[in-house]
Amino acid sequence: MKKKIFVDGVSGTTGLKIHERLNQYTELEIIAIDYEKRREPAERARCLNEADLVFLCLPDDAAKEAVGLVTNPDTRIIDASTAYRTAKDWTYGLPELSKAHKEAIVKSKRVSNPGCHATTFALSVFPMIHHNVMPADYPVSCHSVTGYSGGGKALIEKYEQNEGNNEYTKAPRPYSLGLSHKHLPEMTMHAGLTDSPIFVPIVSSFYQGLAASIPIHTKLLSKKVTPREIHEMFDEYYKEEKFVKVMPYADDSLLFEGGFDITACNGTNRAEIFVFGNESKGIATIMTRLDNLGKGASGAAIQNMNIMLGFDEGLHL
User: Residue 65 domain-assigned?
Assistant: First the structure.
């Protein structure tokens, strides 16, 4: 019997991408809601409770409202908002963090899909905390450069208006300069840190792609390790993962004329981790890139669905 799937909020950027991916499945039945009734609680409740699995692609308050409409104990939910990413009774949907994380997703009925910045950050920090290489109170800083599609329809429209005379496209724009970005709580919790990192996101005038950079002073770590040894640790940690790849150390052929290609994972569900280092100075940088619309959003949601429904994790990804 086909599993029934409902996407609440299908008109948003993430919802549209999830729906596109779901159309590849013959194993699923997609529940459609009448467009004119999409805001009616009774009709939404009917669709939510008829589904085996629901994707919520809504603002936080609307996602909470949708969860409140679910009375069917068998309906499983993947929420793409920030509403439940630090909630104790929800499972964080980043299966590569550990075997325990993946096993929890298999069993869970409530999974929060990670944020795009938070995904790169947790993948970059968690293994070092897990192996006691980095102390949990390490003064972590991070900057993350992303394409403007991460801001949803409203920001996309601003970047794509008035071509040739658009203030938004003049230069990259650091934002959230009050240092309170909405991803910070999940970044701190799911990376295993006790203190919030200093995080500066930067939006630029390309459509999609994201790369986060985390500088490391090896003398501040819990163990005496070189940048190359940090790379070896990451390589071992993620060696069995399908969608997280640790790239070779000090391989200039992977760069674009000596620079880093933020968009190289676009159109995929991959995250690629690089470790760059200067061993004589005892410094390193961990850089992780992904498609903010793929592994950073819709691809991760589909991957979580595959795990929850017992499909191959990489099905249609």
Answer: yes
Q: Which one, of 275, 312, 134, 92, lies nearest residue 218 by Cα?
A: 134
Phi-psi label, residue 282: left if phi above 0, alpha if psi -120 to 50, beta otherwise = left
Q: Is residue 315 part of a domain?
A: no
The domain of 172 spans: 116-292
The pLDDT tens digits for 60-115 are: 999 999 999 999 999 999 999 999 999 999 999 999 999 999 999 999 999 999 99
147: helix, strand or coil = strand
116 is catalytic: yes
| DSSP letter (8 states) at residue 113 | P
- d(CA 177, CA 292) in angstroms, rounded, equals 21
Q: For residue 32, is it within any domain?
A: yes
Give the active site residue among 47, 116, 142, 265.
Answer: 116
Strand order in the sheet with 3-8: 28-31, 3-8, 53-56, 76-79, 110-112, 91-92
Strand 110-112 versus strand 141-147 pairing type: unpaired
